[in-house]
Each structure stands twice: as C-alpha cells, then as structure tokens.
C-alpha cells in the first residue's frame, strides 16, 4: 500500500493548473493515501489534483487549507508519478500539463451519483420510425457500448423522448451506470490459430521475455501478411497468463473495428477501448477499471499510455513507424518512445511491430538495445506482390490526366477477373491548387501560409493547416475575372472522377478522411469494401494502414515521387515506408498481387530500393547518410518554435536566441536558424523555428533549458520546444 497521511497532516498536491510545482494542503477527514486523486480549493475554485508527497511547509501553517474530498478511484501509483516526471523532463513539458494527460477521464470529479445508461435491449421494435432507426444504428455501430441519455440522443440526432420511447418498448435497455461494471474476462487459453514454425519461434521468444516480468523491447519486423498480429496476440496471451495487463496501441482509430473482432475471436470477449470514438460514459468506466486491474487489455490511441494501469506487463505498438504516434499539438511527445519509457519504469515488455520500421528502431536493434524478431514470409499461400515502376516519361498522357495507359490496362485486366484495384494518391481533396488563369493568383488561406484546397465533395475550399473552409468563389478574389479559376494538380476526388470516366462500369469507392463524418461511417465503408462492395478503391494514406482487402490484387501508386521532393531529411524514409506499406495491400489472400509505381524518376535510389525490396540495403544507406549529417537517430535534435501574430517580434526573439547560444555551445550543441517554420503561418500566427543539433551523448534538455532561460518571452509569443522533431 502507498504511504498514508492522517487527517490534518500536511501534503503536497500537484494540480492540473498551470502552476510551478505543488501546493500544500491538509489531509481531509479520514486521511488520504499518497497518489490519491483529490479535489482541492484554489482561490474561489475547486480543482483536480493528486497527492504528490508529504507537504513542504515553509509558510504560515495556520493558513493551510484542507483537501475537499478524495475521489472514488484508485490512487495514482508511484511508478505512474515517476513516468509523468520523466516524461515531463524528457519533453520539457510542465508537470501539470503532463498530469492533465493522465486525468483525461471525463467526469473524473463528478460526485459518485448513479447515472442511467442505455444499451441495445432484447426486443425488436414494433414500429420503426426514421428517428428510432437512427438510435438503433448508433447502438449497433458501437457494438454494445453504453451511452448516457444525452450522448445517445446527440449522437443519433434525435430528442431524448425518442430514446425514452424505445426504452418503454424494451428495445433499448436502461441500466444503472456501468462505471463500476468490470469488463468480461479474456481467456488466454482458448485455442488460437495454429502457428507456423516461424511464428511459433517468435512467440516463444516473446513469451520467455514476458515471463521475466522485467523491461525489454523487441522489434517485431515482418512483411505485411506475415502474421505479426497473430504473434503479438499470443504475446498478449502470455502476459494475461501472468496476470498482468496489456496495452495495444494502434495508429488509426479506423483500424480498431476489424482488430477488435480478431481479438474477441482469440480471447472470447471484447477488450476495453480508448480513443476519441468511444463514448464519455465508456471512457469513465475504462479509466476506472484499468486502475483497478479489471480491464485486462486496452486497445487504444497514443493517449492510452497515460491510463492508470495497475500492473502493466506488455505494450504493443503496432505500425511503430507511423508518424501519427507523434502528438503535434499541446504536449509534444512520441507515443512509441513514451511506451518504452513507461515500460522501463514498470517492468514491462514492449513489442514494436512493423513491416517497415522507423530508422530509430532499426538502429536501436542494430545496436543491441532492442531484441529483433523477423517474420520474412507471408502466411500461407500469399506471396509478396511484385513491384514494378511505370516510367511516366515514356507514357503519353493528356494534361489533367494522371492514370497512365499502362496502369489503365492493368486495372482493366483486374476488373475482367473480378478482382479489386487500389489507386493510391496521398492528397486529400479535388485539387491542391486553385489558380486564376487570368492573373495567375493562387487562392490561399487568410490565416495560414498554405493554399486553399478544393473539396468538391464538400463543395468548399479548405485549408489543411487550420481547417478553415470557404465557399468556392465565382470570380478571382484578386482580379475579379469571371470563370477563369482552374483546378491544378490531382487530389483523390479528382482521381475518382478520372477513374469513373475510364472505367464507367466499375463500382468506385473513395477513402479519404474528410469524406466521412464519423469514424463509424469509415469503418462501415471499409468492411463493405473488404466484402467485395467495390471494384476500384481510391484512397489516401488512410488505406495504407493495415486494412485487409482479400480481393485486392493491384495497387497503382499515382505519384511515387511525391515525398521525395522536399528538403526534409526524412523524406526518403517516409516514401520507402509508405510505398512498401501500400504495396503490401495487394495480394493478401491466395491471389498474387502487383504494385505499380508511377514515377518520373524510376532511377532514383529510393524508388530503386522500393522496387528491389532490399530493405537492409536501404536502411544501411539511409543510416550512413544520417550519421554523416549528424541527425537522428545518430545525433540529437530539438526544435524551438516561436509564434506570434507579430512577425517582427518572433524574428527578433529568434535572433536574440541565436546570438546568445553560449549555453548550447558549452554543452557541445549547435543552433541553426531562425528560419520560417515548416508551416510559416498558422491561424494568423507567424512561426519561426530554431533547430538545435547535438552529438548523441549531450544532455540536450538541460542545455536547452539554460539557453531559453536567458531570454524574456513576451506575453504575445508562444515558445514551444519539440524534442526529436519529425521533420528536419
Ligand atoms: P500482419 O499483421 O503481419 O500483416 P496478420 O497477422 O494480419 O499479418 O496475418 C495476415 C493474415 O494471415 C490474417 O488474415 C491472419 O488471420 C492470417 N494468418 C496469419 N498467421 C496465421 C496462422 N498461423 N494460421 C491461420 N491464419 C493465419
Ligand atoms: Zn489556414
């Protein structure tokens, strides 16, 4: 049991308010444990906090106020405190902001009153109205999750009386709050799939590591379809057998539906879920049950790392290379790295699974810091797709057309065989540029340094930086010319239009994040496509990730050069990963697959490496370049972003920082910039970036703190530190 403080004893409480350090309070009636979640008075307000340790005193003790009450949840464990402190130090985030991530349980401080919740009941409705059907659709789509009356009526877009009407008929069940309802037990000993020799060997190694109950990280590298998921599900089973909890992180919420079904089939019950698509009611329940050890497995997004696990024994990071693991807003952290940190503190194993690992993980495995397991062959009869380049210089294509004759022939061939084809273009919307043919003006966002992208599906222009939308103007905003605005370049919507013209008989499905109002609509669409509900799939990045489309045998990449043009040193790695990942969608079942890459520079080393499949060779060459440049993972980096409505102000401060670089130089680090940030203006704020670069052994965080501590940051300016930036 954690240390206990008697009533009246002085304790230090860390609140979620932006204060420096902790505040002292007196323990309430009945006392409290270290780590207890409490409500404390702060000025006239009540705020949430955690009992962080014994009080520090040093002030007039008669003035110390009392904790108002202790919340009805398990106290924060000491290892969670350590994790938050270390994560705060690593990312240079104030501790209260870190604590906010760990207290994201909605209604955590609600009084423990019973609420009513609603689920699917037993009876069929006698009379279905459109409104009633909407309610049932919501309940069915969320597969048994519970809603409060407000959540359910809002999600269905109906009045609460519609729900009440269904309750009266017994179609919807009304229950007391499930916040204390444990999850169904998962059974690790149900018979799983029979593993191949290769898979069995990997499972044995992981199970042995898990049996040690200590920290370790394994890079599980396997081509798409090799059974990585099967293997790590057995690692989850091994963890459950030891009575410890497991967390599986996934990069895309859209993937969870298919994945949960698989997990349920393996363990006989559904795990807990943690992501933005889960109802508030369920999140409250999950948070609490995780803390009591009653939720054995959590499947979630990166924020699930901050759940109060009682005894976490395994963290799986699926598609570990995925850039969406980096949180780019608020607290900047990489969930993959934080998973390793958390596991090292609580004595858990980490499995990093990917077909195309990040260079970071690859080099950690090379250096012996991570164990490495390889699954080089696809399961069963499935073979890796054949990869081919289409040399666009040799194809005759009219302007404003992007599907080459060679690709067109290949698609026609698939359609005749009743198989599916995927056309991949990593660009949302209809066209990336809207240009006035009269004056040359390009429509830009009023608040950002970005173009407005035409979305015909939504009938609007949209800024992909800030989300601002505007109607498509009839005349040029600059010269007033009428009817001269033209769409330039392809987006997925325009590609879909072209495909519809070329293949009028085919059923075409477009998968792009902004075509779906909800994650649920997207899930449904994916299930439909997987079942053969489309002949041609047109998609962005969204389809590259892990979906299983058994009928898909052809992948056409419209613009394989897209990621290779920028100055970003990670461009090659990203392109390599994305292309291999997309290509891996083809031929997952018995049918052989082909991936065709349209490229204007098929002799480019990255394109050649993608085609030849020489991954080790590619990684070694890439590692050599980065080592030479002294950038991650062979050097350390931090980005400092300064933003303000006033451009002069951010440049002045940036220049001052660049001048006063002595603390960095003394530590062995160097500063570059200030330069306009990769996105130079967002939401009306100008942004400049300084990059700090240091050799591996340098204590970068300390040097950065000493350095930025020298300057006074004007109130209008926001200074954000980004340790290990994604682009450099
Ligand atoms: P990955 O995660 O590496 O892409 P999966 O685990 O999804 O691979 O496996 C690909 C497909 O092969 C899935 O449909 C999976 O059910 C099947 N599969 C993999 N291993 C086995 C096995 N040992 N027995 C039966 N089916 C398997
Ligand atoms: Zn904008």
What does this structure look like?
This protein has 728 residues and is α/β, with parallel strands linked by helices. It folds into five domains: 4-83, GIY-YIG endonuclease (3-Layer(aba) Sandwich); 114-178, Arc Repressor Mutant, subunit A (Orthogonal Bundle); 197-375, 3-Layer(aba) Sandwich (Rossmann fold); 386-430 and 489-623, Rossmann fold, CATH 3.40.50.300; 635-723, 2-Layer Sandwich (Alpha-Beta Plaits), CATH 3.30.70. α1 (78-91) packs antiparallel against α10, α6 packs parallel to α7 and α15 runs parallel beside α16 (605-612). The two termini are 46 Å apart. Bound molecules: adenosine-5'-diphosphate and zinc ion (ZN). The site of adenosine-5'-diphosphate (ADP) has 15 residues, from α7. GO terms for molecular function: 3'-5' DNA helicase activity; ATP binding; DNA binding; hydrolase activity; zinc ion binding. It catalyses: ATP + H2O = ADP + phosphate + H(+); Couples ATP hydrolysis with the unwinding of duplex DNA by translocating in the 3'-5' direction. Residues 209-375 form the Helicase ATP-binding domain. This is Replication restart protein PriA.
């Amino acid at each position: 049991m954690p240390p206990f403080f008697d009533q009246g004893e002085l304790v230090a409480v860390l609140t979620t308010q932006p204060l420096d350090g902790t505040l002292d309070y007196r323990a309430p009636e009945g006392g409290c444990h270290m780590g207890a979640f409490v409500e404390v008075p702060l000025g006239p307000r009540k705020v949430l906090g955690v009992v962080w340790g014994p009080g520090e005193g040093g002030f007039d003790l008669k003035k110390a106020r009392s904790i108002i009450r202790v919340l009805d949840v398990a106290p924060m464990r000491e290892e969670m405190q350590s994790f938050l402190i270390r994560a705060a130090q690593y990312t240079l985030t104030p501790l209260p902001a870190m604590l906010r991530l760990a207290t994201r349980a909605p209604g955590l401080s609600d009084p423990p009153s019973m609420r009513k919740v609603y689920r699917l009941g037993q009876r069929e409705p006698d009379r279905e109205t459109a409104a009633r059907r909407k309610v049932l659709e919501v309940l069915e789509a969320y597969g048994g999750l519970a809603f409060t009356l407000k959540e359910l009526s809002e999600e269905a877009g109906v009045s609460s009386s519609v729900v009440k009407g269904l309750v009266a008929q017994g179609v919807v069940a009304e229950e007391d709050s499930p916040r204390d309802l444990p999850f169904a037990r998962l059974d690790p000993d149900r018979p799983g799939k029979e593993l191949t020799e290769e898979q069995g060997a990997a499972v044995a190694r992981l199970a042995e590591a898990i049996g040690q109950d200590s920290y370790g990280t394994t890079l599980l590298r396997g081509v798409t379809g090799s059974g990585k998921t099967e293997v790590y599900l057995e690692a989850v089973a091994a963890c459950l057998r030891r009575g410890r909890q497991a967390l599986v992180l996934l990069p895309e919420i859209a993937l969870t539906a298919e994945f949960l079904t698989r997990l349920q089939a393996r363990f006989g019950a559904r795990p807990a879920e943690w992501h933005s698509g889960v109802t508030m009611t369920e999140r409250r329940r999950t948070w609490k049950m995780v803390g009591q050890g009653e939720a054995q497995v959590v499947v979630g997004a990166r924020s699930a790392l901050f759940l109060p696990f009682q005894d976490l024994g395994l963290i799986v990071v699926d598609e570990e290379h995925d850039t969406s693991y980096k949180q780019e807003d608020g607290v900047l952290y990489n969930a993959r790295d934080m998973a390793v940190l958390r596991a090292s503190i609580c004595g858990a194993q980490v499995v990093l699974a990917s077909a195309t690992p990040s260079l970071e993980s690859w080099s950690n495995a090379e250096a012996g810091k991570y164990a490495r397991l390889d699954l080089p062959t696809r399961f069963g009869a499935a073979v890796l797709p054949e990869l081919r380049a289409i040399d666009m210089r040799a194809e005759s294509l009219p302007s404003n057309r992007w599907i080459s004759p060679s690709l067109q022939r290949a698609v026609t061939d698939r359609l005749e065989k009743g198989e599916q084809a995927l056309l991949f273009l990593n660009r949302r919307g209809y066209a990336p540029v809207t240009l006035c043919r009269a004056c040359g003006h390009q429509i830009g966002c009023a608040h950002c340094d970005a173009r407005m992208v035409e979305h015909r599906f939504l009938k609007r222009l949209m800024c992909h930086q800030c989300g601002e939308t505007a109607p498509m103007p009839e005349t040029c905003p600059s010269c007033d010319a009428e009817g001269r605005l033209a769409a330039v370049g392809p987006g997925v919507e325009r590609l879909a239009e072209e495909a519809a013209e070329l293949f009028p008989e085919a059923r075409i499905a477009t998968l792009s994040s902004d075509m779906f109002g909800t994650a649920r609509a997207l899930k449904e669409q994916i299930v439909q496509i997987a079942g053969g509900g489309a002949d041609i799939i047109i998609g962005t990045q969204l389809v590259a990730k892990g979906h299983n489309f058994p009928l898909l045998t052809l992948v056409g990449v419209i613009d394989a050069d897209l990621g290779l043009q920028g100055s970003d040193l990670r461009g090659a790695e990203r392109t390599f990963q994305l292309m291999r990942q997309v290509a891996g969608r083809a031929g997952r079942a018995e049918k052989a697959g082909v991936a065709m890459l349209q490229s204007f520079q098929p002799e480019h080393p990255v394109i050649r490496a993608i085609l030849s499949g020489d991954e080790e060779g590619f990684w070694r060459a890439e590692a050599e370049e980065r080592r030479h440049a002294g950038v991650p993972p062979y050097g350390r980096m931090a980005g400092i972003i300064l933003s303000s409505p006033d451009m002069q102000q951010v440049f002045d401060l940036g220049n001052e920082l660049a001048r006063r670089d002595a603390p960095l130089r003394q530590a062995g680090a160097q500063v570059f910039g200030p330069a306009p940030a990769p996105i130079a203006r967002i939401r009306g704020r100008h942004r400049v970036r300084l990059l700090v670069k240091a050799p591996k052994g340098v204590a970068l965080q300390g040097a950065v703190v000493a350095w930025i501590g020298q300057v006074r940051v004007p109130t209008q300016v926001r200074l954000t530190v980004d340790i290990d930036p994604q682009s450099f």
